[in-house]
Each structure stands twice: as structure tokens, then as C-alpha cells.
Amino acid sequence: MKKRFFPGWQHSPRYVNSYDFDWHMKGTQHILPKQVFSTENEVWFEFPDLNVIDGLPMIFSLDPYRGKEKIMKIYQNPPYLVIKGRHSQIRIRHKNADAVVWRELK
Questions:
Q1: Which whole number is the average pLDDT over 39-43?
Q2: Rounded CA gap, 46 and 66, in Å?
Q3: In degrees, to the nearest 5, what angle opens at C-alpha 16 toward C-alphas 85 and 21?
Q4: Structure pTM?
Q5: Which residue has the higher pLDDT, 105 or 58?
Q6: H-type helices in the chain, by residue range?
Q7: What mean pLDDT is reported for the chain?
Q8: Bond prior to 79 in cis (omega within 30° of 0)
Q9: Strand (E) positions, the chain?
Q10: CB under 8 Å to 63, separation ≥6 — which residues?
Q11: CA distance 25 to 33
Q12: How far apart are CA 15 and CA 24, in angstroms?
């Protein structure tokens, strides 16, 4: 099995993933991702141009039952930002802008 390497990313074997593109979003237009999709244990965000929003946004996982937010570590895999874990609701913040992305629990 061949391992893939991305700068700043851990070495890991990659298997065929099942991708979920059924994500919804709302919020401040200029920080909304162009595309969001997830695998079993990662969520990938593609932004039109991170330079437009002047730096990286903060990404939080939202607990749908308790309403608590947890800031997530962001991995860069251009043109994507990636967070690890299974998440159904995510908040994106940058300065005074705010957006939410979510998927229906299956």
C-alpha cells in the first residue's frame, strides 16, 4: 500500500473513502465555503480564495444537543482546509463574519 504525503499532514494509508456532499450552509457570503464534503472521519472545506477573507477562519464543531462549541485544529491541504472527526454542525468565524454548515444525521 502506498502512503500519501502532504506537507504538515500526517503519513497515513489511504483507502477508498465514501464521500458525503450533502452539506448545507448559510451565513455571511464571503466566508461561506465553495464546497464542503466529508469522509467517515474528516470534513473538507474548499474556499474560493482564502486571501479574500484575509487569513484563515476559525472553525468550531457544534454540539447539536448541548449547543456548545469546540474550536477545531485546521489542517491545510490546498485548496482545502480539513478538520478531523465526525461532525454534523460546524460554525465558521472570521472577524465579524459568521457562517454555519450542517448535514442531516443519517
A1: 94
A2: 28
A3: 55
A4: 0.79
A5: 58
A6: none
A7: 85
A8: yes
A9: 3-4, 12-13, 23-27, 35-38, 42-46, 58-62, 69-71, 75-77, 80-84, 89-94, 97-103
A10: 69, 70, 89
A11: 8
A12: 26
DSSP state of 68: -
CATH numbers and ranges of domains, the chain: 24-102 (2.60.40.2500)
Contact 10, 89 (CB under 8 A): no
Q: 42-80: per-residue pLDDT in tens? A: 999 998 776 555 678 999 999 988 889 999 999 988 889
**CA 20/CA 23 separation, integer angstroms:** 8
Length of the chain: 106
Grid cell locating 94: 472570521
Q: Is the dihedral of CA 85, 72, 9, 7 positive or negative?
A: positive
Percent of the chain with pLDDT over 70: 79
